[in-house]
Each structure stands twice: as structure tokens, then as C-alpha cells.
Design goal:
Structural class: alpha+beta
Number of helices: 18
Mean pLDDT: 82
Radius of gyration: 22 Å
Distance between the termini: 54 Å
Strand content: 5-15%
Helix content: 55-70%
Low-confidence stretches: 1-18, 230-238
Largest sheet: 5 strands, mixed
């Protein structure tokens, strides 16, 4: 009975697709029964434009379920991107959740870029596309956010988001991207963008502090009353920041060396396993995604890094999640000398 009542509530919200209602529908969708999900799929068969029904199903399919649920999640996300890329629903986290598999990300990225090309003057589409691409395709995310801000230059939250993207890009291991980010920051044309970026950089390693001071001074010259703080909407954006590998390495408090696989040693296989890592607010490794590495070396490298711990990273005095790159090297010469120290 309770699940039936929940379904009635969901369908009663279909005509009211504002952001808070959409978020509530997604959250409530996590507790749907399989029967409720089937009935909502039926609603969409007769009325594909029922965004609230689709929002509930996105919540349902984004929770841990059998493999078929992932296919359904990607199917619904693809529909939203193609038909309503401007919607509040298209900007929610469940849309990004569908990108965990690289193949799904590539397919959905193509849909987002096509929508951005189709609606180049709709800042909502451009920003939603940027949110999806961040952090896996930081270069395109920055490009789209810049275009969105050009359409809405007074939007404080959008300025804050672009500042965050540029600061993350500045720390990227992609040298070209980092140089472009620095150039963008050096020519920032609004107090909000300069000030927020300066504030974020000031919370990082000392190597970024000269640029931080320059940006804050620039913001003050544009607006003497500007206060360096996080703007509206920045709290959510700043829950996760990107930090370069060399900088993050200094925060390691516990590193576990990998176990060299006997088969790899016998085959004289050596090399480096490269991963993208998400470090939680408590300093523990929450997620690892393989970038490259020999198949025989990948599992022991990832098993070792999952046990690493870091000092929590603080931004404006609050702990934040960190995205970084981790490398673990396997060297036969190190094995022979007893040195198995991983590198980051």
C-alpha cells in the first residue's frame, strides 16, 4: 500500500517539474519497488514527456541493482539529453552517475556535445553539458561553461563554477590544459570570477599563492567592496576539487606498497599503473578508475592504493573531496634491491 501511495504522489507531481520537485522525485525513486518502477515505465510509454516520472526512475535505476538497471539508467539519461537538455533534471547528479562506464560516458558525451551545438545560445544546455563532462573531460567542460557565462555574465553561481573548473584545470597533468587555464585566469574580466578563483587557489599549496594574491587584487580593483568568499551555489561545487599529483603526494600519511605478482616477475613484466583517484573528506581513497597499466599489474596496484590514507584537504576551513592522479611503479630492479616504494 505504501509503495502504491508513493507512486500516486510521483504521478501527481508530473506537471510541476521545478528543480526542488525534481530532486525530491529522484530521491524518492530510490525506494521504489520493482512493481512501481514497472508502472512508471508504463506512464512513459503513454507520455514520454513526464519528466517527474522519468526523474523517479533515474533515482530507482541509479541505486545498486542488477546489470540491466544500468542499461535502463543510460537509456533514460540519453532521452533526457536528447529531448530536454535544458531541464533541471538534465543537470542533476543522476545524469553524471550514468557515466561511470567509459563506454557509456563516450556515448552520452556525444549526445551532450550535439545538444550544445544545436542550442549554442541556451546557457542552461551549455551548463548542464559542462556539469556532465566535469571532471572526465575537463577541457570541454571549461569551454562550455565559458560559453554559458558569456550568455549570463552576471550569474554569480556560474562564475563560481567556472572559477572552480579553471582552478582544477590549472592543476591538471595535461600541460596544455593547465597553460590555457592559467591564461584564462590571468585575463578574467569579472570580480566574481577572479575573486573566487583566488580564494580557491589560496586554499591550495603555496606554489599557487602568488597567482591567488594576484587574482584577489584584480578582483578588488574591479570592485573595492568585493569580499573573497564562496558565492551562491559554490558550496555544492566545492565539495570536490582537483589537486595535481605532485601536490597531493605531500599529503600521504600512509602508503602501502604493492605486491609484485609472481607471474609478472617470471615474465619480466614491469611498468607503471596510472589511476584517477577520489580521496574522501576523511583522507581515505573512495574510488579508483584505471587510466593505463599492464593487466598483470593493475589489480595489485589498485589493491595497494585503496589502503592509502591522506591528510584531509581543507577549503575555507571545511574538508572537501579531492580528485587526483596516482601512479604505482613496478620495477624488477627495485624488487632485486628491496625497494618497492610506489610513486604518485
Amino acid at each position: 500500500m505504501a509503495s502504491r501511495c508513493a507512486l500516486i504522489l510521483f504521478t501527481s507531481l508530473i506537471l510541476n517539474a521545478g528543480s526542488p520537485e525534481v530532486e525530491r522525485a529522484v530521491e524518492a525513486g530510490r525506494s521504489l519497488s520493482e512493481g512501481d518502477a514497472t508502472r512508471l515505465e508504463g506512464v512513459l510509454q503513454s507520455d514520454p514527456e513526464s519528466l517527474m516520472a522519468r526523474a523517479s526512475l533515474l533515482g530507482y535505476y541509479s541505486t545498486p541493482r542488477p546489470a540491466f538497471a544500468r542499461n535502463n539508467l543510460v537509456r533514460h539519461v540519453g532521452w533526457v539529453i536528447e529531448h530536454h537538455p535544458e531541464s533541471d533534471l538534465a543537470g542533476l547528479g543522476q545524469i553524471q552517475a550514468a557515466a561511470n562506464d567509459p563506454r557509456d560516458f563516450d556515448a552520452l558525451k556525444r549526445l551532450w556535445l550535439a545538444s550544445a551545438d544545436q542550442f549554442p545560445n541556451d546557457s542552461r544546455v551549455l551548463e548542464n553539458a559542462s556539469k556532465f563532462l566535469d571532471p572526465l573531460d575537463l577541457a570541454d567542460a571549461v569551454h562550455l561553461e565559458k560559453k554559458a557565462l558569456e550568455l549570463r555574465p552576471t550569474d554569480r553561481a556560474m562564475s563560481g563554477r567556472l572559477a572552480t573548473l579553471l582552478v582544477n584545470a590549472l592543476q591538471s597533468s595535461d600541460g596544455t590544459l593547465a597553460v590555457e587555464a592559467r591564461e584564462n585566469l590571468a585575463t578574467c574580466s569579472s570580480a566574481e570570477l577572479c575573486g573566487v578563483a583566488g580564494g580557491l587557489l589560496g586554499g591550495l599549496a603555496v606554489e599557487y599563492h602568488p597567482l591567488a594574491e594576484s587574482l584577489i587584487a584584480r578582483a578588488k580593483s574591479m570592485d573595492p567592496n568585493f569580499v573573497v568568499s564562496m558565492p551562491l551555489g559554490m558550496a555544492a561545487n566545492a565539495r570536490r576539487i582537483r589537486i595535481g599529483a605532485n601536490v597531493q603526494e605531500s599529503s600521504i600519511v600512509r602508503s602501502v606498497p604493492p605486491i609484485y605478482p609472481p607471474l609478472a616477475k617470471q615474465a619480466r613484466i614491469q611498468g607503471t599503473v596510472r589511476m584517477n583517484a577520489v580521496i574522501g573528506k576523511d583522507g581515505k581513497v573512495e574510488n579508483l578508475t584505471l587510466v593505463s597499466g599492464h593487466p598483470l599489474l593493475v589489480n595489485p596496484a589498485m589493491e595497494a592504493v585503496r589502503q592509502w590514507e591522506y591528510k584531509p584537504t581543507l577549503l575555507n576551513g571545511e574538508p572537501v573531496e579531492v580528485i587526483t592522479t596516482v601512479e604505482v611503479s613496478f620495477s624488477l630492479s627495485q624488487q632485486e634491491t628491496g625497494d618497492t616504494s610506489p610513486k604518485q
